[in-house]
Amino acid sequence: MRKQVDVSDRLAGKLNALSDGLDRYERFGLHLLMSVSIGGVAPHGAAPRRRRRAEAWKTGLKVLAHINPSGLPYVGRPSFVDKRLLSGLLCEAREKESVAHRTGPQEISPGGRHAIALSRSQELRELVSRALGVAVRSTGITTYLYYNRTGDHLFPHVDTEIFSINCIVMLEHVIPRRARSRSALVTYGLDGRGRRVPLRPGEIAVLQASGTAHARESVRESERVTLLTIGFNRLRSR
Ligand SMILES: [Fe+2]
Fold first, then answer.
1. d(CA 85, ligand 1 centre) in Å
2. From the CA of 3, how far away is ligand 1's center (Å)?
3. pLDDT tens digits for range 46-62
4. Sheet holding 194-197, edge to edge
5. Spacing, Cα 65 to ligand 1 middle (Å)
6. 32 CA to middle of ligand 1, Å?
7. What is the DSSP secondary structure assignment for residue 190, as one 8-state letter?
8. Where are the domains of the chain?
9. Tens digit of pLDDT for each residue in 4-39?
10. Among 1.10.150.320, 3.90.1150.30, 3.30.1240.10, 2.60.120.620, what is the CATH number of 74-234?
11. H or E stretch including 51?
């Protein structure tokens, strides 16, 4: 039997070799282009099934994971996320929602003092550092995200600027009664498949977000998701 050639492996290998020969600014440009491209190939987050599109999709995921570290090393609720911390963050998220702006099928607002305090806390830094096995520093960049209209979502992408590690903190998930499904974070592996990561309020996902494609599934009618994201970087890059 003739061996099936995986086009995405071949093409990714060539693009990875190209990437290795680029300077950091050129590599940044390639990374940004690949990030935008995967969102174009799978705009609603479902991995493409048609062969050629699936090959392009997997190529993008492989190149992005070559340029930057990838993976989801931690999902859980650490003990320092107690009721008080969570309600402080949620109150602040509600206050900030009045000045949030729509950047696409979602709204965002910058974090306030509660979010910044968490981003600078030793507990969170140690959690991220332990999960990755490397020293990290907080960027102090915090953002509240609101998926508050029917159909709101985030298309597949990687985070490209300012930080490479994203701590995603679930603050509130309003799920309508009798809902058959609920919106989840999705991360994509190199085989092109999505992995759903449903987070409960208080749970945190530590994502190597500049090398791992990720998305947010659409919220249904009356469903709402409120998240906080906090950016970290490695002390030394790769
Ligand atoms: Fe992201």
1. 23
2. 37
3. 889 899 999 999 999 99
4. 154-157, 214-216, 185-188, 194-197
5. 14
6. 13
7. T
8. 7-67, 74-234
9. 668 999 999 999 999 999 999 999 999 999 999 999
10. 2.60.120.620
11. helix 51-67
